[in-house]
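Q: what sequence does this backbone want?
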């Protein structure tokens, strides 16, 4: 039952890793998450990089050790949900907020899908 989720978590980890190295906001001003995080400590991009790293690690863990209890899928759902909210609200940018690039749009879609996948696994684990 949980092996099916593991087969989906592995590609999501790879896609999340690739998207983290792409510019999610206009590249001439902002760059990638890692570039924005490297420009200063305590900024929202640093927190976003921390969340992205945690999500990639948890997705990798869940793909090799399919979770049978709730903590790992719950953490994946929370991290993916917070990343989606941060991408939609774009904290730390000037007003008016810059638009997302196509990579940013893809990152929002991947974050929402990852959150929904983890929530569906939580529901299945809860039914057992």
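A:
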């Amino acid at each position: 039952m949980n092996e099916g989720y593991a087969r989906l978590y592995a590609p999501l980890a790879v896609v999340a890793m690739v998207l983290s190295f792409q510019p999610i906001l206009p590249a001439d001003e902002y760059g990638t998450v890692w570039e924005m995080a490297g420009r200063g400590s305590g900024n929202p991009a640093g927190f976003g990089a921390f969340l992205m790293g945690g999500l990639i690690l948890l997705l990798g863990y869940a793909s090799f050790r399919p979770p049978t209890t709730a903590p790992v899928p719950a953490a994946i759902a929370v991290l993916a949900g917070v990343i989606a909210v941060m991408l939609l609200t774009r904290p730390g940018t000037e007003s008016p907020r810059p638009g997302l690039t196509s990579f940013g749009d893809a990152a929002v879609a991947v974050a929402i899908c990852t959150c929904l996948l983890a929530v569906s696994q939580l529901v299945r684990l809860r039914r057992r």
